Every structure is written in C-alpha cells, then in structure tokens.
Amino acid sequence: MPSVYKSVISNTSKEMMAYSDYPFPDHFPNYLHNSKIMEYLHMYVKHFHHLKHIRFLVCSVRKHSDFSFTGQWDVVVQAEGKQESYVFDGIMVCSGLFTNPFMPLQKFPGIMRFKGQYIHSWEYKSPEKFQGKKIIVIGIGNSAIDLAIELSHVAAQVFLSTRSGAWIWNRVWDSGMPMDTVLFTRFNSLVKKIFPEFLINRWAENKLNSRFNHDIYGLLPQHRYVLGFLKTSFGDDLPNYIITGRVRMKPNVTKFTETSAIFEDGYTCSFPFLENNSTVLDIQRSMYKFVFPPELEKPTLAFIGILQPVGATIPTSELQSQWAVCVFKGLNKLPSVSGMLADIRKKRTKLEKQYLNSPRDARRVQYVDYMDEIASEIAVKPNLFSLFLWDPKLALELFLGPCTSYQYCLQGPGKWAGAREAILTQREWIINPLRTRTLICAQAPCCVPLWLKSICVALLLFVLTFIIIKG
After folding, report:
1. Can you say whether residue 289 is alpha, beta or left, with left for phi > 0 and alpha for psi between -120 and 50 degrees?
2. What is the dihedral of CA 317, 193, 356, 11, to 10 degrees?
3. What is the biggest distance separating any 2 CA atoms in the chain, rounded to whole angstroms?
4. What is the sign, positive or negative, of the torsion defined by CA atoms of 224, 225, 227, 230?
5. Cβ–Cβ under 8 Å, residues 153 and 130
6. Which helix (H) or strand (E) holds 78?
7. For residue 251, how many other CB atoms are within 10 A of its CB?
8. What are φ and ψ of residue 35, in 5° steps?
9. Transmembrane region positions (predicted)?
10. Are 263 and 276 in contact (CB under 8 A)?
C-alpha cells in the first residue's frame, strides 16, 4: 500500500505536473501539499467521469488461453469483498517504481543489538511520538531531509547521516519562480547538449554553492554535478537547520548507539499480481523505452511510470499511456524484437556512463528529452520551426518557457483546443496564487531576460533563413 507522511509537499510545481488537458486551478499554490494533489486527482476523475470504471484491488493478471493469437489478458479484481473476472485486450501496469520499502540492515553492524526503535520512512506519519529523543536519519534523499527538519522541532537532537552527500536544490529559484519552470525548458535542454560537461558542472555547482557552501555544511557529494545527478535533493530549509544546530550532519553509520533510527533509502519494485513469465519481464526488467516488454508475443502490455524522470512524473506517464493506447489499437507498430533489445542495450550503456551505477539510475531519464522521444512516437511533438513561421509568439514560449504537458496537446491524438491558451497564460497561473497582497505598481517577474529573448529570436530567424535558402 502507498504511504505518505502528513506534511509532505510536492517537489514538482503544479504547472509542470498537470495533465495536458486539465490544468490545476490557478489559485492552487505552486508547490502542493499532498492533500491538494489528491483533491486535483478527484477533480480530474470527476470531470472525465472515470470513477465508474475504477476497481481498487487487482488480484492477478494472467495471459488468456489464446494469448498468442488475441493478446488478451485474464484479470481478477476484488470489489466489495467479492472477486470478479474480466478479459481485457490491453493492460497498463501503473503501480509505481517504489512499491516495497527495503532496509539493508546487513550493512549496519550492531543493528540487531540496537535497543532503540528503527523504522523505514515509509512507516513515518508525524513527529509526535519522537518527542525528546535523539534521532539519526540515514539517507540524503528528499524524504530524509524532510523528516530530519520536521523531527528537529520535537526531538532532543537530530543527526542526518549520508555516505556520499548531495547537491541541495531549492524549490524557489531565480525571481522567486518555481525551480522546474525555470530550468526545464527546451532552451536549457539545447544548452546542455551544446556546452561541454565541465562547464555545466561549473555553472550548476557555483549556483548551488552560492547559497551555502556544500563542503562546509558537510553535504558535498563525492561526484560532480552532472555525473552524480542522482545525488540531488530538495532541502529549502536544510542549511538553516544545520547552521542553528538543530540538524547535525554525520558520515555513514558504523554502529548504533542512538535512541531512534529512521532509514530513508531503499525501495524495491515488484508486480506480485503479474504472471511470472520471462517473456513478460526478464530478470533485469527490460522495457523498450521503459514501457514495452520486448519479447512478448503480442504488444498488449505496457508499464507506465516505472521510471525516474528528472522532472514531473504525471506528464511522462500520460504520454506513455497515449503511446500504449496507439500500439494496442494497432495505430503504431513497435520495432522487431532484435531492434527493441538493441535499443535497450544502447540506453543501458549510455546510462551506465552518464550516471552512478545503482538500480535507481537504470531508469533515470532527462525530462524534456524523454517527453520529446515518446511524443515523436505518436506525432505530438511540437514543430518549433513551423510554429515560428505561423505563430511566433507561441513558438517563443515553447522554446524559452517551461516545457509543460500542454505542449503535447497542440496536435495529434489527444489534441486539446485549450492548449495554446494554457501555454501562453502559464506564467500568469504561476504568479496568481502569490498575489494575495496586490501592489499598485506590481510587475510580473520575467524569468527570461529581454536580451536573451532577442538573441533567441535572431538565432531562430537565421536558422529558418538558412533552411529556406538551402531548400
């Protein structure tokens, strides 16, 4: 079962995580409490009349007796205490990447003689029962930092233990804008491809160290920024709590002597309801573009959201779902088995070079690049050059503005009439919930300087002119 502690706040902003045809209400804050996200999901389900189709407990998913011919699946669900059987033409597995909490206790000597309490962050809900205790939080992910800060309000002392450190991000970025709306743009994605890695490292590390020195605060990672992107976490308040002594940084734990311990790191992904068959999933859980098992006789099974985008999960999952439907309906064809396996090996090799070697890294993707890759499969990736000729205002916002899911509703399957307006007004929707005290001379902050816009327009014009002349 999923588990969320009461105070958890999203790490992706509402405009970046919204479904492509259903924006969040503009008065919702940019970073949402978990109850607000749940409210949005209920609104979405109600708006599209989905509730009547939902069953909340899947018992088993097995190949139908004539699967090799029909590609159908036998599904057993439990509803109101009774089991019901269905036959489906296609299956999407959307159970998530982090399903089972895992504590590697064998890595911590003395844990079995430890007299205090130890739990996984999955079990944590609120800080009350930790009143007056000394606590060590093991891990440096988002949950570990959240818990260390929250527990420091009631505990006698909180220690935060990390093997390798992490680069600490702020939700609030330049001009007070949400971090992901500033950084996750097509322009920045292009910059990362053009500039050498050492320059990207230098810029990012200087930017993050400008707020506080990660070395002095005991947080400096063992790897450079690009290589160790896994070791990045959100911790807007962490330096304040370290400098006031309420949270004290510690290296990796060698033995246990404290009162309480909370393990943050460690999840495994499992699909207990799914047929145990090597053609469905091999030992490495290989999936073509992280969606389709390559060796299944019929492409009627898709895994949705079983990856780690450097960005929001809802938009990537939505595009995966659209692609899966197109394949199920026969509108799109997958490559041959050998072609899919070759693509999987190529991506795996690239990830091993690009990131640290860990199971989580094996499913990490760059947000804009992956969105465009899947969008290209179903012809919904926006054509910037064409748009610049016919709708330059929209093209400029697509290039310089946040790469929101609305961009993929301008054309093709799932086209939404409100997509253009949503893109052109998305900055207003970011600012609106902040305007609770209106000033007469208030001006909307601009995330992109005018000089940069001018240069981009000039570059686009130059490229277009070159293409036209050459053509």
Report:
1. left
2. -40
3. 77
4. positive
5. no
6. strand 73-79
7. 11
8. -70, -30
9. 450-469
10. no
Nearest to 458 by CA among 403, 407, 396, 402: 396
Which pair of structure tokens corresponds to residue 215?
């070395």
Tell how strand 157-161 and strand 247-250 pair up.
parallel
* Strand-pair partners of 366: 310
Indicate the pTM of the whole model: 0.88
Report the C-alpha gap between 351 and 361 in whole angstroms: 7
Pick the closest to residue 388 from 403, 378, 399 (CA basis): 399
Host H or E run for residue 161: strand 157-161
Residue 294, class by beta-carbon neighbours within 10 Å (0-12 exposed, 13-18 middle, 19+ buried)? buried
Q: Sign (positive/negative) of CA torsion 323, 325, 329, 335?
A: positive
Contact 9, 33 (CB under 8 A): yes
Cβ neighbours for 96, distance < 8 A, ≥ 6 positions apart: 2, 269, 305, 306
Query: Rounded distance, CA 470 to CA 459, Å?
Result: 16
CA 66 to chain centre: 37
Residue 71 contacts residue 334 (beta carbons within 8 Å): no
Grouped pLDDT means (10 residues each) for the chain, 471 residues: 86 96 96 97 96 89 94 91 92 86 76 80 92 92 94 95 90 94 94 89 93 95 69 90 96 69 68 77 80 94 92 95 96 95 89 63 86 96 92 95 96 93 95 85 56 62 57 55
